[in-house]
Design brief:
- The protein has helices at about 1-10, 20-50, 55-85, 90-115, 120-140.
- The two termini are about 20 Å apart.
- By secondary structure, it is an all-alpha fold.
Length: about 140
């Protein structure tokens, strides 16, 4: 997703002036794609060093939840500000989807860690991040502001 977003933004041209909402969408897309990739690679790395499955899921979920928490706050505040602007394409539905999706990511990763490393909850949290990223990517392509 991050790669496609990079290509899509390149179509806008090097000298394109991005609106603040587009910058926020790009930041959200790249940060969630990066986090999903980092968590996935951490699980693989921990397993390759001989850590037990549930321990690798626990540490990956914990790191993911600790990273997702500030992202949830950061992007929820941004989308709230944009929803208040009459000219913005982000309405209250965008606030609900952004806040709901990012909170779901945090809650799923946290629940995985609290259960001692649940693979199902970890994968669900990563899936929620990717689906949220796909929604942001769609918004980036369809709505300039």
């Amino acid at each position: 997703m991050a790669g496609f977003a990079g290509v899509a933004t390149a179509f806008g041209g090097r000298d394109r002036a991005y609106e603040q909402i587009e910058i926020a969408r790009l930041r959200s897309l790249f940060s969630h794609a990066f986090l999903a990739l980092a968590i996935s690679l951490l699980v693989i790395s921990l397993r390759s060093f001989g850590l037990e499955e549930t321990d690798s899921y626990f540490w990956s979920s914990s790191l993911g939840a600790l990273t997702q928490a500030p992202l949830t706050c950061y992007f929820s505040v941004f989308v709230w500000k944009f929803a208040m602007e009459p000219a913005a394409s982000t309405g209250w539905g965008g606030v609900a989807i952004t806040t709901g999706s990012t909170c779901a990511c945090f809650l799923l990763l946290s629940a995985s860690a609290m259960q001692g490393g649940s693979l199902g909850l970890l994968v669900s949290g990563l899936s929620a991040q990717l689906l949220f990223g796909l929604w942001v990517f769609t918004r980036l392509l369809i709505h300039r502001y």
